[in-house]
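Sequence design from tokenized structure. All designs in this work follow the same two-part layout: the structure record, then the generated sequence. An example of the structure record is given first.
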């Protein structure tokens, strides 16, 4: 048989059947041994007839005419994966066995359809099936393009498909910065860039990616907290194993944040705004250099599910080290006014950034202030979270912007 003259519409019309098969030729003929084979319906181009193709595991293909040539189909043992196909010319019985019952049922149903339908109905059915299969293939291709993974040195393309929703880039130690092509993915929801030597993050990251929900920049070289990740729609943020020293007040804008992982950094201070993230359920601050954490974390209205705070040098400062607040400078007062108006310092000015870092929020009235009064309180971790790791106690710091707030704070504590 010339395989070039056969086209397989049946692959679109029925299930291809893989099974064991034996053959009996003529009445009272001898039965051949079982062989592994594949049965498939096809159309012979030269004859214009629908045929049944038998592909043996060893050898070529055998062709059996279907139209007006199939005498009997015995399906009594169909549930056991068996059936018999009896042909007129040549006079042969094909015994199918060890087939998957579900596949066999579908194959026989399609075989019945092919054998009983007129040629024009069959042609329209094949055309409709082709169209449906093309749609399925297009949908499958789109699904495959929703996830892109480039790890262990796999080369990065110059651009990514707009359909990408999950992008995982890891192990590119010389990358240093976020590829610009990533900012042109409007559907991106999950972004992972780990072990890429990142030193900076574009400040417009979450503005350029409005669908972004999960960010993982762990195991990089970030020394400044990337304000660009502070989007109101982000639900998970992983900045573990970097060189971060502080967590700024800008994190308070992440109202939807549920998971925050800042473990294994060099943190010495955390903004009290973290404690005001009411959606937060998992907080990891272990393996840092925190002498204390803001009291707002311990006074949360909604408890945490997990809280990790171990391996931090909690130690209450000596009384002589707790200096009374001095009157703030004019520059500090200007920074307070800027923070109250929602302004952020420019990235190019380290001096202005230091002034903004000296602005605090009162634990009582939440007013921005400079040079607040400070008091320290030990807290039990069991009261804060359902599950916690490390020591049961941690040191918190409370700030008061005025003597009145300080007295109220003392009464509350």
């Amino acid at each position: 048989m010339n395989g070039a003259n056969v086209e397989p519409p049946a692959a679109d019309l029925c299930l291809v059947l893989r099974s064991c098969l034996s053959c009996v030729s003529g009445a009272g003929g001898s039965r051949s041994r079982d062989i592994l084979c594949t049965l498939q319906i096809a159309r012979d181009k030269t004859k214009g007839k629908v045929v049944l193709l038998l592909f043996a595991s060893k050898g070529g293909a055998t062709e059996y005419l279907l139209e007006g040539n199939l005498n009997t189909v015995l399906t009594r043992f169909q549930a056991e994966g068996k059936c018999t196909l009896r042909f007129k010319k040549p006079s042969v019985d094909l015994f199918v066995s060890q087939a998957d019952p579900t596949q066999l049922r579908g194959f026989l149903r399609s075989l019945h359809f092919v054998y009983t339908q007129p040629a024009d109905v069959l042609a329209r059915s094949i055309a409709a099936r082709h169209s449906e299969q093309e749609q399925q293939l297009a949908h499958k291709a789109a699904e495959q393009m929703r996830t892109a993974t480039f790890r262990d040195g796999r080369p990065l393309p110059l651009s990514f498909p707009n359909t990408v929703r999950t992008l995982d880039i890891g192990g590119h130690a010389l990358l240093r910065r976020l590829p610009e092509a990533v900012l042109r993915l409007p559907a991106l929801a999950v972004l992972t860039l780990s072990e890429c030597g990142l030193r900076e993050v574009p400040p417009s990251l979450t503005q350029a990616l409005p669908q972004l929900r999960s960010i993982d920049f762990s195991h990089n070289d970030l020394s400044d907290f990337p304000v660009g990740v502070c989007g109101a729609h982000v639900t998970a943020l992983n900045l573990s194993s970097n060189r971060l020293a502080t967590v700024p007040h800008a994190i308070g804008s992440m109202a939807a944040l549920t998971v925050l992982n800042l473990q294994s950094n060099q943190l010495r201070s955390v903004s009290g705004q973290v404690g005001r993230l009411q959606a937060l359920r998992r907080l990891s601050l272990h393996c840092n250099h925190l002498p204390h954490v803001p009291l707002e974390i311990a006074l949360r209205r909604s408890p945490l599910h997990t809280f990790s705070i171990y391996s931090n040098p909690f130690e209450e400062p000596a009384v002589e080290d707790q200096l009374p607040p001095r009157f703030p400078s004019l520059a500090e007062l200007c920074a307070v006014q800027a923070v109250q108006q929602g302004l952020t310092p420019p990235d190019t000015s380290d001096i202005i950034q230091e002034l903004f870092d000296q602005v605090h929020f009162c634990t009582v009235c939440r007013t921005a202030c400079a040079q607040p009064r400070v008091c320290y309180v030990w807290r039990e971790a069991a009261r804060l979270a359902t599950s916690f790791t490390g020591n049961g106690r941690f040191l918190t710091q409370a700030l008061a912007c005025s003597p009145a707030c300080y007295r109220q704070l003392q009464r509350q504590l």
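The first strand starts at residue 6 and ends at 7. We note this feature because it recurs in several other targets discussed in the main text.
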